[in-house]
Amino acid sequence: MKNNSLAGNMEILKIKISYQLKEDIKTLAYIKGITMTKLVTEILANACQKAREEIEEIRSLRAKK
After folding, report:
1. CA dihedral sign of residues 14, 23, 34, 43
2. H helices of 6-35, where?
3. 38, 32 in Cβ contact below 8 A?
4. Residues 48, 50, 53, 58, CA torsion sign
5. Left, alpha or beta for 33 (phi > 0: left; psi -120 to 50: alpha)?
6. Is the pLDDT of residue 6 over 90?
7. Of all helices (H) and strands (E), which one includes residue 42?
8. Could you tell me which residue, 12 or 30, shows the higher pLDDT?
């Protein structure tokens, strides 16, 4: 098994995406020189970070009221 920092937290997501989106992800991964899985993991990590930031901002605004 590869040394992967996410090894303890891995789950397989089965989602349906359009053919065009799959091709775009494949192309971007190729350009970046990484696997599609790595790219999708990075995208999801960025989305989660943004969500956490938005949650904190909303909580902060509510606390000020």
Report:
1. negative
2. 19-32
3. no
4. negative
5. left
6. no
7. helix 36-64
8. 30
pLDDT tens digits, one per residue of 24-58: 999 999 999 999 999 999 999 999 999 999 999 99
Q: Is this model's pTM higher than 0.90 or not? A: no
Tokens representing 57 are 């901002």
Token pair listed for 29: 């991964």
> How many residues are recorded in the chain?
65
> For residue 1, what pLDDT is reported?
42
Phi, psi values for residue 50, rounded to 5°: -65, -40
User: Identity (one letter) of the amino acid at 65?
Assistant: K
Name the residue type at position 6.
Answer: L
SS3 assignment, position 18: coil
| Amino acid in the structure at residue 49 | Q
